[in-house]
Design goal:
Blueprint (H helix, E strand, L loop, with lengths): L1 H15 L7 H30 L3 H27 L13 H31 L10 H28 L2 H28 L5 H28 L6 H12 L6 E10 L2 E10 L5 H18 L3 E10 L1
Parallel strand pairs: 2-3
Antiparallel strand pairs: 1-2
């Protein structure tokens, strides 16, 4: 499986050479997603081995959680490929919103994982089954520590790249990595507690960690749904746009400035006032030049629609 992923990654990197300058987004998504899948596959295998050899139910559950992360990386990869498709007859504004759809799917995976983990651990607590748990071996403890370090590293690597290319789905995937790191912290506490004679710490810690997972899922879902409902940009972004446009001496007034988020891109609707004695050709030239300047200065803006009013 690892060799298959390696060949797939090699083909992805070679195909990237034929992409245009805007494809840094695609290259980053694909590179991070493939590395995540390979890392999760190796980590899940090690956790399963440590769980069985070390007789740790917590570590086996943690291994299953790591396996689910592979599906999350696939969702991000597929969502990014679709979102990069050119506009067509059925989608004249492009496909960027498919990235938000991928983020929502990841949020549901996180939410279900959190709810499932809480349910499982509460059953253990109230049924008293934790009293019959075996004392786990040292290898399970080592696996938990390894998982925390690796998954937290994967979180920061993914989060930094997500911030650089402004990718919500990649940020959701980063939180998926952190949820696994948090789950491993719960496993570490539970395994250490069981080895010290306090087996109830295992399910209790997992319940607490699951609440953090649910909070991350809700936050990802909220952010993605805002971008699917034409939510405006931040006030800071709109203020930057206002001052940038106002600096053009040919613009007498800004009568309307509206923004809406479209996946990872932004659409701007603008009404400006120009000298009423100006010819239509001159007014059109000002609008066209302003349109180009805005899109060049703000790379996240996909399109500007400008209406010209007589000042």
């Amino acid at each position: 499986m690892v060799s298959v992923l390696h060949r797939f990654m090699s083909s992805v990197i070679s195909n990237e050479k034929d992409m245009d300058s805007d494809s840094d987004y695609s290259r980053t998504i694909r590179k991070v997603s493939v590395l995540s899948m390979a890392g999760n596959l190796a980590l899940a295998g090690f956790k399963f081995f440590a769980g069985f050899v070390g007789r740790s139910d917590a570590m086996i559950s943690d291994a299953i959680h790591s396996s689910s992360d592979i599906a999350g990386s696939l969702i991000v990869l597929i969502g990014s490929v679709i979102s990069e498709k050119e506009a067509d007859e059925d989608h004249p504004y492009g496909h960027e919103r498919f990235e938000s759809v991928a983020s929502i799917l990841l949020a549901f995976i996180l939410f279900l994982a959190g709810v499932g983990l809480i349910r499982e651990e509460l059953i253990k607590i109230f049924s008293g089954s934790w009293q019959n748990m075996h004392s786990p071996g040292m290898i399970a403890l080592i696996a938990a520590i390894t998982s925390i370090i690796v998954k937290e590293g994967m979180y920061w690597y993914t989060a930094v790249n997500a911030g650089r290319i402004h990718s919500d789905s990649l940020l959701a995937e980063a939180w998926h990595h952190r949820s696994d790191a948090l789950s491993s912290i719960g496993s570490l506490i539970g395994i250490a507690g069981a080895r010290l004679g306090f087996p109830i710490l295992d399910p209790a810690a997992d319940v607490l960690i699951s609440l953090f997972i649910l909070k991350a899922a809700i936050s990802i879902f909220h952010n993605a749904t805002e971008k699917l409902t034409d939510h405006s940009c931040s006030p800071q972004m709109e203020q930057q746009l206002y001052y940038f446009i106002q600096d053009d001496p040919r613009v007498c007034s800004i009568d309307l400035l509206q923004t809406r988020e479209f996946g990872r891109k932004i659409y701007l609707d603008l009404e400006i006032g120009v000298d009423r004695e100006m010819t239509l050709q001159k007014a059109h030239q000002i609008a066209e030049e302003l349109h180009d300047r805005i899109e060049n200065a703000f790379p996240d803006i996909k399109h500007v629609m400008i209406h010209v009013n007589p000042a």
